[in-house]
Amino acid sequence: MINSAILVTMCLFALLAIQARLLRNAIIHLAVLSVMAAFLYMRIAAPELAVAEAVIGSGLVTLLYLAALKRNRVYTIGVVGNEKSKHLADPYMHHLMRTRALREIREFFLIREYQLQIVFVPESRAEALQNEAYDLIIEEDDKGIVAYTDEESYIMMELEMLIQMRGAQSQLRFERLQPPAEEQELQDTAGI
User: pLDDT tens-digit profile of 81-116?
Assistant: First the structure.
């Protein structure tokens, strides 16, 4: 009876790993699957297999997967709000998340299996643009959503081309930023 329950649980976690939309979740489901397999080996009196499965399957393999996934960069999108939205950060973020533009941005990063982090920026747009922690700054205005991005970001260029190919339905506009003056001087002196 217990062995059957363990097998059903293992099948459930295998399906969850296959259906996971994020790689990190799939890795966690596979680790749980390995732990359940180790427990099943103990139940059927195979302690050597149980130890090997626990150490290698749920320990070493999970660490290797997570280390490989860590090499995948996290893209941070900063959402700059207006004066009203700064006091209502959570409802404002929920409102923006329901917009077509943010849905398309999330879909873009999900398809490419990039980690995406969308955060509310409590500072002004000018201050947020100076902060290197944000790969993309988003601000809502009367015409839709404006995305401020670095001129040299290939990922953001690809995102912009995708949005342009889909048409103006998302109401997302991109504004390219020049590198700061000191970086531009370094590039000019280096002959880049």
Answer: 766 555 566 777 777 778 887 888 888 888 877 778
Output the pLDDT for position 13: 95
**pTM attached to this predicted model:** 0.56
On average, the pLDDT of the chain sits at 81
Q: What is the DSSP pairing of strand 74-80 with strand 136-141?
A: parallel
